[in-house]
């Protein structure tokens, strides 16, 4: 949702306006360069779910999100969950380490 990213959202769209977010939106336009690079690198792994959660930051507001990646037949689905203010952000390395210990 645009409001979670602190992006400008018009109450009444103009003719010819395109939605800011939607299916097929390039993540490089939404997240910081390091975050987009991390997501792109993660897409190369066969077991991408082992890297969950992936910490990313919004380009416009700097807000942190967890990217939860799911591989389905022929596609990748990414869920974005906001990091709650009281949570200590966890990186993929921390999640993978927890998985190895389990």
UniProtKB/TrEMBL annotation:
Tell me the ranges covered by the PAS fold-2 domain, including all copies.
Answer: 2-83
What GO terms describe the biological role, i.e. biological process, of this protein? regulation of DNA-templated transcription
Q: Name one Pfam family in it.
A: PAS_2
UniProt cross-references to InterPro entries, sorted A to Z: PAS-like_dom_sf, PAS_2
Which domain of life does the protein's organism represent? Answer: Eukaryota
Name the UniProt record assigns to this protein = Phytochrome A
UniProt organism field = Epigaea asiatica
